[in-house]
Write a structure and sequence with these properties.
4-stranded mixed sheet, disordered C terminus, 51% helix, Transcription Regulator spoIIAA, 5 helices, alpha/beta
Length: 113
């Protein structure tokens, strides 16, 4: 089960997901995201994943698409932090926004390979 809440603020929207982002719930989240984007395309979007307990491959793909569209993914815990880091590292949008520590770590990994 997945609960989707959209909290609109001045200039910022919080797209809050709670539960499992998997199976048929990915489609529901995708519909909600598309509806939100159509209505509030100019607002900064924070995707709140603090209460998500599981994400399958389709859910991960949706989060990557949301991130690539400019949504900021936030969450906590080992699983969610690792998932957010992975999405941000492979995103074409993430490279310009990396801080110096991330860039240095990324370049060190490239030289070790």
């Amino acid at each position: 089960m997945l609960r989707i809440s959209v909290l609109n603020g001045s200039g910022t929207t919080r797209f809050k997901l709670e539960g499992k982002l998997a199976h048929e719930w990915v489609y529901e989240a995708e519909k909600a995201w598309a509806a939100h984007a159509a209505l509030n395309g100019k607002n900064k979007v924070i995707v709140d994943l603090y209460d998500v307990c599981f994400v399958d491959d389709a859910g991960r793909q949706l989060l990557a698409e949301i991130h690539n569209a400019g949504g900021k993914l936030v969450g906590s815990g080992p699983m969610m932090s690792a998932l957010i880091d992975e999405i941000q590292k492979v995103s074409p949008l993430s490279t310009p926004g990396r801080n110096k520590t991330e860039q240095t770590a990324h370049h060190a990994e490239e030289f070790e390979s």
